[in-house]
Amino acid sequence: MTIPSPFVSRSHFRETLADNSGCCSQASDHNPWNTATAQPTISPGSQQPRDVTVIIPLFNKEATLVRCIESIVLQTFPPKKIIIVDDLSCDRSLSVAYDLASRNELIEVIPLTENRGPAHARNLGASTATTTWIAFLDADDLWHPHFLEKVLLALEKEHADFGSSGRIRISEVDGSIRENVLAWPFQRGSVVDLTDCFWRISLQFIPINSSANIIRRDLFHAVGGFSESMRAWEDLTLWATLWSTGRFIFVNEVHAACYTGLRDDVFGRFRHDYVLRYQSHLLRLLGRSFQTRPRASLSLAVYLMAFSCRAFVRLFVQTLRRFTAPIVHWQVFRNTQPS
Length: 339
Hints:
By secondary structure, this protein is an alpha/beta fold. The protein is 42% helix and 18% strand. The chain starts with 9 loop residues before the first helix and ends with a helix.
């Protein structure tokens, strides 16, 4: 089987998604690297497993789980373990997970008896892992076959603590593509230490996300993992904490595909209480960064100000809609009444 190049143009993605435009279910099944076979490749390969565990939080993703698992099995550096944590799914996700586990001894399924959110599912999977590295992948996303190889080799070569790669974001609404890679002066395909410029890059896009990451397991546990009291923004909070403690590298080419819903940014999950907690966390990190990360403290301050302004605008618009909605409804009601 030929492994396709990660340097695939945006036009290629748009062409292959053209037939799925406007249909969420079809778009979500699309594999942008065309690595899927007629029969899903779920059986373990012949390559020597690497010292990494992949953790998948699962909730109502029966339609995409096979595609996700296949992207892991097809890795040129296969993981030692794949842990699926089912967060009390209401569809057939758990049955699909058990079926996959029966065909691949690397897969372990952990069913939960209570829905506690993705943070708890990820933390539970991480507590079960025994490898040096752990990687998280959402059940509706997938990796290019070289993701683990490229990022693991970069982490070991640079002696870094956590890393990521470029990714594409595919809208399930209209099939549009957004590429998250570093522009000039960073070379495509290079390995970049982003520890000091993490927040400057974050003004454009967050360089790590819940489906494009590899983290040293002992560091993950040392910082407390994901915050289980947050149902959203828990990943952003963890990335900030890891940045304040460890060294971060970025492989500057696309090796992950993330599927998005109605909005393509973090404000699609806007909750003012979570926003305030995230801001407070960044403020605490900013206070410490003047001593621990002096070169990055200014860019963190700029990011925090930009984020706060955007959050304020979002909250203002949300509040305005809440107050104007009854007036609009009343006007519509009046206009529909017979004269």
